[in-house]
Amino acid sequence: MRVPEQYVRAGKLAREMREWILENVSVPQTCLEIATSIEAEIARRGGQPAFPTGIGINGVTAHYAPQEDDQTKIGAGDLVKIDYGVHFDGYIADTAVTMTENDEYQQLMETTKRALEAAISVVKRDPRTGEIGKAIEATARQAGFKTINNLSGHTLEQYTVHAGKSIPNVYAPNQPMLKRDDVFAIEPFLTLGTAAGYVVDAPPSSAVTIYSLIMRKRTAVKELDALVDHVWNARKSLPFTPRWFSKEFGRERLQKLLSELERRRIVRGYPTLVEASNAPVAQFEHTMKLEGNSLVILT
Q1: Where does residue 119 rank: exposed (0-12), middle (13-18), buried (19+ CB within 10 A)?
Q2: pLDDT of 227-274, one tens digit each?
Q3: Which among 104, 143, 234, 253 is placed 20 to 30 Å from 118, CA to CA?
Q4: Alpha helices in 164-205 (DSSP H)
Q5: How far is CA 104 from CA 4, 96, 107, in A?
Q6: What secondary structure does DSSP assign to 32-79, as a single string?
Q7: Which sequence positions are flagged as catalytic?
Q8: Cα–chain center distance at 161
Q9: CB 85 within 8 A of CB 6
Q10: What is the DSSP letter of 240?
């Protein structure tokens, strides 16, 4: 089956946005400025963000979307991961890039790129996800680095970012095979050889900044049901960030509503993930599709 046109459009825009990011993101912009400008540019070009733009500085590894009061600026010494996605009609292109002006991180960044290239080379001839992880891990180790062993790539489906199959960043036996017409993202995360090599939730004091709707269950509470309807109409099951809806519901009230919906298991919150020893982490990612006997790299 040919790649749906929406996937092709999403991948093309994601590629264009990578060039835009490399040209337009620089020190000392704030994380909020970076995220909002990327999301606005995606919309300006006719797409929609597939999920909130993630900005990960140094040991902050995933699931952090800056909110309105975030004044954090990227510095010249930082390793900055920008994880973003584009969707058309729920068909998602998921990709990530790492940037730095710090010479100390150049080898880590370049090795992470090579790990992604090694993974792509493997999947062309061997669709076993464990073998893909083996190639990523070997590339990291050869250069003296570690992979983040509890993060992985993933299959994608319409309106679903993580669609069931995982693609590990380490060798893992008895893993599922990628099949013809699977759409999936491979995303190596590499860190220092002296690091813990895994991520943990950020401290409880850190606010959750990314959510997704699990179900459209009625609560008989007018405000809760209004928020669920609003999220569904805007996002379906795709992830969102409170910043996107604060004008309609008010920041403080929105957070209380989200907390109650999470308690009722109607929405899911994604805690920010940080490297366990606070070591810097680099990330690169492509979305691709197995089409017949060939591999189509969408991003």
Answers
A1: buried
A2: 999 999 999 999 999 999 999 999 999 999 999 999 999 999 999 999
A3: 104
A4: none
A5: 42, 21, 7
A6: HHHHHHHHHHHHHTT-EESSPPEEEETTEEE-----TT---B--TT-E
A7: 83, 94, 154, 162, 187, 285
A8: 9
A9: no
A10: B
CA 281 to chain centre: 14
103: which DSSP letter? G
The letter for the amino acid at 195 is A
d(CA 286, CA 150): 19
How many percent of the chain have pLDDT more than 90? 90
Which residue in the block uniquely carries the two structure tokens 């099949």?
Answer: 179
Beta bridge partners of 234: none
Helix/strand/coil for 160: strand
For residue 293, the model assigns a pLDDT of 73
Residue 87: beta bridge partners? 48, 92
Span 165-211, pLDDT tens digits: 999 999 988 888 999 889 999 999 999 999 999 999 999 878 899 99
Look up tokens 């809806």; give the residue. Answer: 245
Tokens 């092709």 belong to residue: 8
| pTM (two decimals) | 0.95
Select from 166, 154, 182 the least CA-distant residue to 85: 154
Q: What's the residue count for the chain?
A: 299
Q: Are 79 and 279 in contact (CB under 8 A)?
A: no
Calpha distance 135→171 (Å, rounded): 8
